[in-house]
Amino acid sequence: MSATWPALALMAALLAATCWLMPLTAKADTTGAALRVCADPNNMPFSNAEGRGFENRLAELMAQALGKHVEYTWWAQRRGFVRNTLNAGACDIVMGLPAASDHVLATRAYYRSGYVLVTRQDRNLNLSSLDDPRLQSLKIGVHLIGDNSTPPVLALARRGIVNNVLGYSIFGDYREPNPPARLIEAVADGEVDVALAWGPLAGYFASHSAVPLEVIPLADDPRDPPFRFSIAMGVRPGDTALKRRLDTELERHCGDIDALLRQYGVPLLDNADNVPAAGLK
Questions:
Q1: d(CA 2, CA 103)
Q2: SUPFAM superfamilies annotated for this entry (predicted)?
Protein backbone atom coordinates (compact mmCIF):
# COMPACT_ATOMS: atom_id res chain seq x y z
CA MET A 1 0.00 0.00 0.00
CA SER A 2 1.07 3.56 -0.50
CA ALA A 3 1.24 5.62 2.67
CA THR A 4 3.33 8.27 4.37
CA TRP A 5 6.83 7.01 5.07
CA PRO A 6 6.40 6.61 8.85
CA ALA A 7 3.25 4.59 8.26
CA LEU A 8 5.10 2.45 5.72
CA ALA A 9 7.86 1.84 8.21
CA LEU A 10 5.35 0.84 10.84
CA MET A 11 3.46 -1.38 8.43
CA ALA A 12 6.67 -3.16 7.51
CA ALA A 13 7.38 -3.78 11.17
CA LEU A 14 3.87 -5.07 11.80
CA LEU A 15 3.49 -7.13 8.64
CA ALA A 16 6.33 -9.60 8.55
CA ALA A 17 7.19 -12.33 6.03
CA THR A 18 7.02 -13.15 2.36
CA CYS A 19 4.32 -12.07 -0.07
CA TRP A 20 2.58 -15.15 -1.31
CA LEU A 21 -0.86 -16.64 -0.80
CA MET A 22 -0.83 -19.51 1.67
CA PRO A 23 -2.61 -22.81 0.89
CA LEU A 24 -4.92 -22.12 3.83
CA THR A 25 -7.38 -19.88 2.01
CA ALA A 26 -10.91 -20.47 3.28
CA LYS A 27 -13.79 -21.15 0.94
CA ALA A 28 -15.50 -17.89 0.04
CA ASP A 29 -18.72 -17.14 1.90
CA THR A 30 -21.68 -16.49 -0.38
CA THR A 31 -24.35 -16.14 2.31
CA GLY A 32 -23.21 -12.96 4.01
CA ALA A 33 -22.87 -14.89 7.28
CA ALA A 34 -19.08 -14.52 7.47
CA LEU A 35 -16.82 -11.68 8.47
CA ARG A 36 -14.07 -12.30 5.93
CA VAL A 37 -10.64 -11.45 7.36
CA CYS A 38 -7.21 -11.51 5.72
CA ALA A 39 -4.43 -12.24 8.19
CA ASP A 40 -0.95 -13.70 8.55
CA PRO A 41 -0.79 -17.35 9.74
CA ASN A 42 2.58 -16.82 11.50
CA ASN A 43 2.66 -13.35 13.00
CA MET A 44 2.26 -13.55 16.76
CA PRO A 45 1.20 -11.77 18.87
CA PHE A 46 -1.09 -10.40 16.16
CA SER A 47 -2.34 -13.52 14.38
CA ASN A 48 -1.59 -17.12 13.56
CA ALA A 49 -3.34 -20.03 11.91
CA GLU A 50 -4.32 -21.48 15.30
CA GLY A 51 -6.23 -18.30 16.16
CA ARG A 52 -4.05 -17.44 19.16
CA GLY A 53 -3.20 -13.83 18.31
CA PHE A 54 -5.00 -10.87 19.78
CA GLU A 55 -6.18 -9.82 16.32
CA ASN A 56 -7.68 -13.31 15.89
CA ARG A 57 -9.55 -12.86 19.14
CA LEU A 58 -10.63 -9.35 18.23
CA ALA A 59 -11.93 -10.61 14.88
CA GLU A 60 -13.97 -13.22 16.73
CA LEU A 61 -15.34 -10.54 19.04
CA MET A 62 -16.37 -8.34 16.12
CA ALA A 63 -17.91 -11.27 14.24
CA GLN A 64 -19.99 -12.29 17.24
CA ALA A 65 -21.15 -8.71 17.75
CA LEU A 66 -22.24 -8.57 14.09
CA GLY A 67 -23.93 -11.97 14.24
CA LYS A 68 -21.39 -13.57 11.90
CA HIS A 69 -18.55 -16.07 11.99
CA VAL A 70 -14.93 -15.41 10.99
CA GLU A 71 -13.69 -16.72 7.65
CA TYR A 72 -9.95 -16.33 7.04
CA THR A 73 -7.81 -15.94 3.99
CA TRP A 74 -4.23 -16.49 5.15
CA TRP A 75 -1.59 -14.40 3.46
CA ALA A 76 1.94 -13.83 4.70
CA GLN A 77 2.18 -10.11 5.19
CA ARG A 78 4.59 -7.80 3.48
CA ARG A 79 4.45 -4.97 0.95
CA GLY A 80 1.44 -5.41 -1.31
CA PHE A 81 -0.56 -7.19 1.37
CA VAL A 82 -3.57 -4.85 1.26
CA ARG A 83 -3.52 -4.62 -2.54
CA ASN A 84 -3.44 -8.40 -2.95
CA THR A 85 -5.99 -9.22 -0.25
CA LEU A 86 -8.51 -6.62 0.84
CA ASN A 87 -8.52 -4.56 -2.33
CA ALA A 88 -8.52 -7.69 -4.49
CA GLY A 89 -11.75 -8.82 -2.84
CA ALA A 90 -10.27 -11.76 -0.93
CA CYS A 91 -11.71 -10.44 2.32
CA ASP A 92 -13.69 -7.57 3.79
CA ILE A 93 -11.42 -6.52 6.65
CA VAL A 94 -7.75 -6.31 7.56
CA MET A 95 -6.72 -5.89 11.18
CA GLY A 96 -3.96 -3.82 12.70
CA LEU A 97 -3.36 -0.99 10.23
CA PRO A 98 -2.18 2.52 11.10
CA ALA A 99 -5.31 4.66 11.35
CA ALA A 100 -3.84 7.04 8.76
CA SER A 101 -3.28 4.31 6.14
CA ASP A 102 -4.00 5.17 2.51
CA HIS A 103 -6.05 3.01 0.13
CA VAL A 104 -8.29 1.63 2.88
CA LEU A 105 -11.22 3.04 4.79
CA ALA A 106 -10.03 2.92 8.40
CA THR A 107 -12.26 2.33 11.38
CA ARG A 108 -11.93 4.22 14.61
CA ALA A 109 -8.66 3.33 16.34
CA TYR A 110 -8.92 0.53 18.87
CA TYR A 111 -5.54 1.09 20.47
CA ARG A 112 -2.53 3.38 20.46
CA SER A 113 1.00 2.14 21.01
CA GLY A 114 4.53 2.97 19.99
CA TYR A 115 8.10 1.87 19.67
CA VAL A 116 9.92 0.84 22.82
CA LEU A 117 13.30 0.16 24.34
CA VAL A 118 13.83 -3.37 25.66
CA THR A 119 16.58 -4.18 28.16
CA ARG A 120 17.35 -6.87 30.71
CA GLN A 121 16.11 -5.93 34.15
CA ASP A 122 19.29 -7.22 35.80
CA ARG A 123 21.35 -4.71 33.80
CA ASN A 124 19.64 -1.78 35.55
CA LEU A 125 20.29 0.45 32.54
CA ASN A 126 17.26 2.65 33.22
CA LEU A 127 17.22 3.99 29.67
CA SER A 128 14.39 6.35 28.76
CA SER A 129 15.50 8.28 25.67
CA LEU A 130 17.50 7.90 22.49
CA ASP A 131 19.52 10.89 23.67
CA ASP A 132 21.10 8.87 26.47
CA PRO A 133 24.87 9.10 25.78
CA ARG A 134 25.35 5.43 26.67
CA LEU A 135 23.61 4.49 23.44
CA GLN A 136 26.74 5.62 21.62
CA SER A 137 28.51 2.49 22.88
CA LEU A 138 25.85 -0.05 23.91
CA LYS A 139 25.02 -2.80 21.43
CA ILE A 140 21.63 -1.94 19.95
CA GLY A 141 19.43 -4.43 18.13
CA VAL A 142 16.87 -3.31 15.56
CA HIS A 143 14.57 -4.95 13.05
CA LEU A 144 15.60 -4.84 9.40
CA ILE A 145 12.65 -4.57 7.01
CA GLY A 146 14.13 -4.58 3.54
CA ASP A 147 14.60 -1.14 2.02
CA ASN A 148 12.57 0.62 4.73
CA SER A 149 13.85 1.82 8.08
CA THR A 150 11.71 2.00 11.18
CA PRO A 151 11.38 5.41 12.88
CA PRO A 152 13.81 4.52 15.71
CA VAL A 153 16.47 3.44 13.21
CA LEU A 154 16.17 6.77 11.43
CA ALA A 155 16.34 8.55 14.78
CA LEU A 156 19.50 6.68 15.74
CA ALA A 157 21.11 7.55 12.41
CA ARG A 158 20.31 11.23 12.94
CA ARG A 159 22.26 11.01 16.21
CA GLY A 160 25.19 9.33 14.49
CA ILE A 161 24.50 6.00 16.20
CA VAL A 162 25.26 3.52 13.44
CA ASN A 163 28.36 1.41 14.03
CA ASN A 164 27.04 -0.26 17.20
CA VAL A 165 23.65 -1.15 15.70
CA LEU A 166 22.93 -4.81 14.86
CA GLY A 167 20.14 -5.73 12.47
CA TYR A 168 17.73 -8.66 12.84
CA SER A 169 15.49 -9.46 9.91
CA ILE A 170 11.85 -9.07 10.81
CA PHE A 171 11.11 -11.56 8.03
CA GLY A 172 13.33 -14.15 9.71
CA ASP A 173 12.94 -17.80 8.78
CA TYR A 174 9.24 -18.04 7.98
CA ARG A 175 9.41 -21.82 8.32
CA GLU A 176 9.89 -21.30 12.06
CA PRO A 177 7.27 -19.83 14.41
CA ASN A 178 7.45 -16.17 15.44
CA PRO A 179 10.30 -14.89 13.23
CA PRO A 180 10.31 -11.34 14.72
CA ALA A 181 10.85 -12.68 18.25
CA ARG A 182 14.56 -13.20 17.53
CA LEU A 183 15.30 -9.56 18.33
CA ILE A 184 13.77 -9.78 21.80
CA GLU A 185 15.51 -13.10 22.41
CA ALA A 186 18.80 -11.38 21.55
CA VAL A 187 18.31 -9.04 24.52
CA ALA A 188 17.55 -11.94 26.86
CA ASP A 189 20.57 -13.87 25.57
CA GLY A 190 22.93 -10.90 25.97
CA GLU A 191 23.70 -10.59 22.26
CA VAL A 192 22.63 -6.96 22.43
CA ASP A 193 22.23 -4.58 25.35
CA VAL A 194 19.04 -2.96 24.14
CA ALA A 195 16.49 -3.54 21.39
CA LEU A 196 14.26 -0.99 19.67
CA ALA A 197 11.03 -2.62 18.57
CA TRP A 198 7.33 -2.05 17.91
CA GLY A 199 5.60 -2.08 21.30
CA PRO A 200 2.97 -4.83 20.89
CA LEU A 201 5.55 -7.26 19.52
CA ALA A 202 8.13 -6.36 22.17
CA GLY A 203 5.67 -6.40 25.05
CA TYR A 204 4.32 -9.83 24.15
CA PHE A 205 7.64 -11.59 23.69
CA ALA A 206 9.20 -9.82 26.69
CA SER A 207 6.34 -11.08 28.86
CA HIS A 208 7.11 -14.64 27.73
CA SER A 209 10.86 -14.37 28.29
CA ALA A 210 12.47 -16.58 30.93
CA VAL A 211 14.85 -13.67 31.59
CA PRO A 212 13.02 -10.65 33.07
CA LEU A 213 13.00 -7.82 30.55
CA GLU A 214 12.06 -4.16 30.86
CA VAL A 215 9.94 -2.48 28.17
CA ILE A 216 10.18 1.33 28.07
CA PRO A 217 7.97 3.37 25.69
CA LEU A 218 9.77 5.95 23.58
CA ALA A 219 8.36 9.46 23.67
CA ASP A 220 7.86 11.29 20.41
CA ASP A 221 10.54 13.85 19.58
CA PRO A 222 9.70 16.66 17.14
CA ARG A 223 13.11 16.20 15.53
CA ASP A 224 12.37 12.58 14.68
CA PRO A 225 9.66 10.67 12.79
CA PRO A 226 6.72 9.68 15.00
CA PHE A 227 7.22 6.71 17.30
CA ARG A 228 3.57 6.35 18.36
CA PHE A 229 0.63 5.33 16.19
CA SER A 230 -3.09 4.78 16.50
CA ILE A 231 -4.12 1.38 15.13
CA ALA A 232 -7.38 0.58 13.37
CA MET A 233 -9.04 -1.96 11.10
CA GLY A 234 -9.25 -1.37 7.36
CA VAL A 235 -12.16 -2.03 5.01
CA ARG A 236 -12.34 -1.30 1.31
CA PRO A 237 -12.86 2.35 0.33
CA GLY A 238 -16.57 2.94 -0.06
CA ASP A 239 -17.60 0.17 2.35
CA THR A 240 -19.02 2.74 4.74
CA ALA A 241 -21.80 0.48 6.03
CA LEU A 242 -19.32 -2.11 7.37
CA LYS A 243 -17.09 0.64 8.75
CA ARG A 244 -20.00 2.18 10.67
CA ARG A 245 -20.98 -1.18 12.13
CA LEU A 246 -17.41 -1.91 13.18
CA ASP A 247 -17.02 1.57 14.67
CA THR A 248 -20.14 1.01 16.76
CA GLU A 249 -18.91 -2.33 18.08
CA LEU A 250 -15.37 -1.10 18.70
CA GLU A 251 -16.76 1.68 20.87
CA ARG A 252 -19.21 -0.63 22.61
CA HIS A 253 -16.54 -3.20 23.44
CA CYS A 254 -13.67 -0.82 24.19
CA GLY A 255 -13.29 -2.15 27.73
CA ASP A 256 -13.09 -5.74 26.52
CA ILE A 257 -10.57 -4.78 23.85
CA ASP A 258 -8.45 -2.90 26.36
CA ALA A 259 -8.37 -5.94 28.65
CA LEU A 260 -7.53 -8.23 25.72
CA LEU A 261 -4.59 -6.11 24.65
CA ARG A 262 -3.22 -5.99 28.19
CA GLN A 263 -3.39 -9.79 28.39
CA TYR A 264 -0.94 -9.83 25.47
CA GLY A 265 1.42 -7.32 27.05
CA VAL A 266 0.63 -4.55 24.58
CA PRO A 267 2.00 -1.24 25.94
CA LEU A 268 -1.01 1.04 25.51
CA LEU A 269 -0.42 4.77 25.32
CA ASP A 270 -2.58 7.75 26.05
CA ASN A 271 -3.20 10.22 23.26
CA ALA A 272 -1.92 13.02 25.47
CA ASP A 273 1.34 11.65 26.86
CA ASN A 274 3.78 8.79 26.88
CA VAL A 275 1.99 7.02 29.73
CA PRO A 276 -0.10 3.85 30.02
CA ALA A 277 -3.61 4.51 28.83
CA ALA A 278 -6.47 4.23 31.30
CA GLY A 279 -8.65 2.96 28.46
CA LEU A 280 -9.04 3.05 24.73
CA LYS A 281 -9.38 6.46 23.13
A1: 7
A2: Periplasmic binding protein-like II
Q: Evaluate whether 113 touches 244 at the Cβ level (below 8 Å).
A: no
- From the CB of residue 105, how many other CB atoms can be counted at a distance below 10 Å? 17
CATH of the domain at 15: 3.40.190.10
Same domain, 76 and 131: no
Whether 41 contacts 139, CB under 8 Å: no
pLDDT digits (tens, 9 = 90+) for 131-183: 999 999 999 999 987 667 889 999 999 999 999 999 998 766 677 888 889 99
Cα(142)–Cα(194) distance, integer angstroms: 9
- Give pairs for 130-136: CB < 8 Å, separation 24+: 130/155, 130/156, 130/159, 130/161, 130/218, 130/221, 130/224, 131/159, 135/159, 135/161, 135/194, 136/160, 136/161, 136/164
Range of the domain at 207: 114-217
Same domain, 169 and 79: no
Number of domains in the chain: 2
Q: Are 196 and 183 in contact (CB under 8 A)?
A: no
